[in-house]
Amino acid sequence: MAITVAELVAEPQLGLTILAGSAGMDNRITWAHTSDLPRLWEWVTGGELMMTNGLSIPADADGQVALAEALMDSGASALAVGEKMHAPELLPEFLEACDHLPLPLINIPYPLPFIAIARSVAEASLLEESRRLRQTARVYDLLRTAGASEDHWQSLVQRLATELDSELFVVDRRCLHPWHPEGEPLPVFLADEWAPLSGQVSLAGKNFQWHRVRGRHVLTMDIPTHANALLVVLPNSEPHPDAVVLLHAATVLGLQLSRIVLSLEGRHRLAGEFLLQAFDGRLGTADMESRLAAFQVPAQGFVVASISADGSTADDGDRLANVHIELWRHGISAASLRRNSRLHVVVPADTAEEVLVHCAGAGARIGISTPSSVAGLQRALQESLWALGSARANKLALARYAQGPSWLGLTSFEEGTALVRRLLGPVFDYEQSQEGDLIVTLRTYLDSQRSWQKTAATLFTHRQTIIYRIRKIGELTGLDMGETSTVAQLWFAHQIHEAMHG
């Protein structure tokens, strides 16, 4: 086992003396580390004897007390200060704080080199290193024997917890919800303490950090492979789990999460293929009912949610690509299809709006249909697209069909479809019988503030060709393309068409 503070101080050749915090003499020292940086506690991973020549110690009482508390919160075993070097006077408030915590405060006699202390700790840790290697091997063996199915997740977590003699929780750092739907939630005292911090990616502060929450040491550390997965460790006893073994445990959990996500992707592809056929009307009612049941979505009483990421960053596409995983993680049964710049998700009608907004992420827009059955799946898609258009136009995170503000003065997608057909129908009919780019030209022309030159440059086409196409649209629709009212009507129709068809 690792050497204790008492055992280290008792070594006669070192000549160490205890200045304060003697109630912590049974603390075990996993390593001895030297640092003279101001925020000494940031270099603690748990169990270290921190040695300093005094430059790390503030001169004022408040600063010294804060240093002691931060070292204790970070899991340091003791603080050793070099005698006759650069330390300011160790004030009574500091000594009292070390006694109260308790944090052993050790005096290093001058001119004993710090390396002598580090060597004593290292020699005492040789047997501990052998134990660590054996425990690390057992940790990886747990991954070997765990199944790839998501059903085996909590079993792996519990077996790791037993090995480490700790309680383990894997949560999403943004909301503190269990990362896996079958995972255990954080204890109430932690959830209450950290609730104000939820949504902040910097909860852990760094990859590996000890906290002290309501008298208990708590470790938070990143899980590799998944950006927002956070491992929370509550040791059941002293000494705390070895830091290196904990890092290996986090790696094992990350590998298992990757296994699970890989299996989910296969299901996601099947759901996409099914919805593509269903939305195009290529499946019968009985087939759709059985396929929805396979994805645990009720054939009666579901909604379609259409989601778009309205931002312009490179992460927007990745956000939509992971929504199906976020829904699964929050226990929502779903089938989803990514088409063009939108994600269409079929979920139970009683799915909470706040869960959908959370899973879609900040900046996303969501349109939700009215509750439907498989016979009305295609209509539900049209309703969700209409609601999405309303959400985007009114700058709402979420809009439900036939609820909330109207869109472009219209109340239903039937009215929108009729308007599109009346104004742009002749153009669509012409393009079906003739090769042409009239709709693309119209969209670019409107987006370019009706500039012939800008439209031509965007489409890499001669200016005269653009003029001809716009005049052709006027002939087909019977509208005067020079009239502001005409341009307004076509812009409305085009907005609706884009929303309904992507």
TrEMBL record:
<dbReference type="InterPro" id="IPR012914">
    <property type="entry name" value="PucR_dom"/>
</dbReference>
<feature type="domain" description="PucR C-terminal helix-turn-helix">
    <location>
        <begin position="438"/>
        <end position="494"/>
    </location>
</feature>
<dbReference type="InterPro" id="IPR051448">
    <property type="entry name" value="CdaR-like_regulators"/>
</dbReference>
<dbReference type="InterPro" id="IPR042070">
    <property type="entry name" value="PucR_C-HTH_sf"/>
</dbReference>
<protein>
    <submittedName>
        <fullName>Purine catabolism regulator</fullName>
    </submittedName>
</protein>
<dbReference type="InterPro" id="IPR025736">
    <property type="entry name" value="PucR_C-HTH_dom"/>
</dbReference>
<dbReference type="Pfam" id="PF07905">
    <property type="entry name" value="PucR"/>
</dbReference>
<feature type="domain" description="Purine catabolism PurC-like">
    <location>
        <begin position="7"/>
        <end position="123"/>
    </location>
</feature>
<dbReference type="Pfam" id="PF13556">
    <property type="entry name" value="HTH_30"/>
</dbReference>
